[in-house]
Structure formats: structure tokens, C-alpha cells
């Protein structure tokens, strides 16, 4: 077994599968801003060799994520607050405790409707992009992948 340490906590990779055992403390993780959302990366796409990414996001009231689509599936678990989430032609209110699946390639967006919203966001599948890369692309004026 080999051991490596990243800014996302301590990871130990098994010799047989390459899967990392990861423990990330509440205060750990790379902090980036993506549009109106503060993101703490708990496991990046780089950390997981592109298989998935796990982030905790926090956005203020009125924050909007413009309609976008991408080749990976996204899972949201709402921790605090609420947001109107649109997936395809459907709109729903997602509140604390709700779980939302956004299929790969589905157009989606959200608007925060409470003082703030905090959510766990898990991106999975081919093409999973890192939150840091998304932040850099946004800063450079790039639009979401359509």
C-alpha cells in the first residue's frame, strides 16, 4: 500500500484497486468560487482519477446558476436552506434534506430562494470536471459547456 497526502486530507491507495481511502476533516478542502457559489472541494476529479468529485457548496439568496449541461451526472443533497432547481422543463423547490439527481447531458440551473443554501454536490462519470477548473474557466469568461 502506498500513501499520499493532498490538501484534501490523507489518502491511502490500495495496491490492488488503486482506490483511495480518504478522510477529510470538516475544515479541510480547497476553497474556490464558482459563479455565485463558494465551494469546498472534498475530493477532486484529479484525486479520484476522473471518476467523481465531491464538493460542499454555499450560495446567498438570489444567487443563480445559469442553464448548463455536461456529460457527467450530478447529485445534490440539500444541507440547509432552499433553492428552485430546474432540470429540463421541470422546476422543483429543493429544501434541506432533499436529494436531487441531474442526469448526464440534462440542462439544469438553480436559484437560491432562502437567505442562503448549502448543499453537497457529487459529480460522477466520464468528463467529470474539477471545481477549480470550472472556477478558472468562469474567471476567464467561458460559458458553461452546452
Summary tags:
146 residues; mainly beta; Jelly Rolls; eight-stranded antiparallel sheet; three-stranded antiparallel sheet; 1 helix; disordered C terminus
Structure description:
This protein has 146 residues and is mainly beta. The protein is built from one helix and eleven strands; from the N terminus they run E-E-E-E-E-E-E-E-E-E-E-H. The protein has a single domain, classed as Jelly Rolls (Sandwich). Strands 4, 5, 6, 7, 8, 9, 10 and 11 form an eight-stranded antiparallel β-sheet that branches. A three-stranded antiparallel β-sheet has the order 1-2-3, with no helix packed on it. The radius of gyration is 15 Å and the shape is globular. The termini are far apart. 26% of the residues are buried. Residues 1-8 and 139-146 have low confidence and may be disordered.
Q: Beta-strand percentage?
A: over 45%
Domain tally: 1
DSSP summary, beta strand count: 11
Main β-sheet, in a few words? 8 strands, antiparallel
Instruction: Return the structural class.
Output: mainly beta
- CATH A-level architecture: Sandwich
CATH class: Mainly Beta
The span between the termini is 41 Å
- Share of helix among residues? under 10%
CATH fold name: Jelly Rolls
- Count every helix, treating DSSP H or I runs of 4 or more residues as helices: 1
Short description:
The protein has 146 residues and is mainly beta. It contains one helix and eleven strands.
Write the layout of secondary structure elements.
Blueprint: E1 2-6, E2 9-13, E3 20-23, E4 30-34, E5 37-43, E6 52-60, E7 64-68, E8 73-87, E9 90-95, E10 99-102, E11 108-124, H1 131-139
Antiparallel strand pairs: 1-2, 2-3, 4-5, 5-6, 6-11, 7-11, 8-9, 8-10, 8-11
Amino acid at each position: 500500500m502506498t500513501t499520499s497526502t493532498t490538501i484534501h486530507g490523507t489518502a491511502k491507495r490500495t495496491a490492488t484497486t488503486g482506490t483511495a481511502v480518504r478522510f477529510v476533516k470538516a475544515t479541510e478542502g480547497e476553497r474556490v468560487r464558482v459563479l455565485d457559489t463558494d465551494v469546498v472541494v472534498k475530493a477532486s476529479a484529479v484525486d479520484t482519477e476522473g471518476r467523481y468529485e465531491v464538493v460542499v457548496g454555499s450560495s446567498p439568496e438570489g444567487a443563480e446558476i445559469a442553464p448548463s449541461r455536461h456529460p457527467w451526472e450530478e447529485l445534490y443533497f440539500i444541507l440547509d436552506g432552499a433553492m428552485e432547481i430546474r432540470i429540463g422543463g421541470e422546476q422543483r423547490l429543493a429544501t434541506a434534506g432533499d436529494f436531487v439527481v441531474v442526469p448526464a447531458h440534462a440542462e439544469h440551473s438553480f436559484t437560491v430562494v432562502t437567505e442562503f443554501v448549502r448543499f453537497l454536490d457529487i459529480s460522477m462519470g466520464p468528463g467529470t470536471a474539477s471545481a477549480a477548473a470550472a472556477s478558472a474557466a468562469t474567471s476567464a469568461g467561458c460559458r458553461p459547456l452546452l
